[in-house]
Amino acid sequence: MFVDYRTGGDLPLDPVIDLYRSCSLGARRPIERPRDMADMLRNADLVVTAWEGDTLVGIARTLTDFAYVAYLSDLAVRETCQRRGIGRELVRRTREQLGPNLMLVLLAAPEAAGYYPRLGFEQHPSAWVVRPGADIT
Question: How far is CA 52 from CA 93, 115, 125, 136, in A?
Fold first, then answer.
């Protein structure tokens, strides 16, 4: 089926939550808190989506300064549509929108860690995270 790629984060929330539920990323996103999901979309700097007809099959959600670095915070492809190049195309189009001079950074889910080197990502040895509820000391 034809995949239609679109840019823009003004999306209906139900198809977005359905997409996240349909893949492993849903377990690590606040899909049970629709307001937070809506804020994630609204506050993203760049959103690229993949559609098959009326069905959202993929999303790349990015936060960036548009000058130096971009954080690809979400890359999700509906599980039934994986292994068709949709994720690769979402990343390619994201990079195209950002331009060649920006560094693209992401935190990979453990089960997806082997995927990103195939797209040209290099593993970085010193990423650090402060989890929700943790104190800054």
Answer: 17, 23, 37, 44
pTM for the full model?
0.92
Query: pLDDT tens digits for 31-82?
Result: 999 999 999 999 999 999 999 999 999 999 999 999 999 999 999 999 999 9
Beta-ladder partners of 105: 71
**16: region left, alpha or beta (phi > 0 left; psi from -120 to 50 alpha):** alpha
Lookup result for tokens 């509906």: 78
**In sequence order, what E strands does 3-137 have?**
4-7, 46-52, 55-64, 69-77, 103-105
Query: By C-alpha distance, which of 13, 57, 12, 5 is closest to 35?
Result: 13
CA proximity to 78, closest of 3, 24, 10, 2: 24
**Are the C-beta atoms of residues 41 and 9 closer than 8 Å to each other?**
yes
Backbone dihedral angles phi then psi of residue 66, each to the nearest 5 degrees: 60, 15
Rounded Cα distance between 70 and 41, Å, is: 16
